[in-house]
Specification:
Elements: H1 3-7, E1 10-15, H2 20-36, H3 43-46, E2 59-66, E3 69-77
Antiparallel strand pairs: 1-2, 2-3
Length: about 90
């Protein structure tokens, strides 16, 4: 990777899990896990996740891009209670 690429900002955005970059990212992730595990990896057996689990309100699909090229992805899944930390000085009305 060249010096110029290393200093470019990575952007993070929420996209639909059916977006082509999201589908490609998930496929690449599952293929990597399949290579790493001696017994392989089957996503539907490991912990089934549907595309609806990756959409609001259940979750979000995050896509990382560098210079308009998808370079990473992740899924946030919300479960029950939510916990949030804020610095005391950032709280309004404290």
């Amino acid at each position: 990777m060249g010096r110029q690429q290393a200093t470019a900002p990575v952007t993070l955005e929420v996209v639909d899990p059916d977006h082509r970059h999201a589908r490609h990212g998930l496929s690449a992730y599952y293929a990597e896990l399949d290579r790493r595990f001696d017994t392989g990896f089957e996503p539907s057996v490991a912990r089934p996740t549907t595309v609806d689990d990756m959409r609001a309100p259940a979750g979000r699909f995050l896509l990382a891009s560098l210079r308009d090229e998808a370079v990473g992805c992740g899924v946030l899944k919300f479960h029950g209670a939510h916990h949030w930390f804020e610095k005391p000085l950032a709280r309004v009305g404290s």
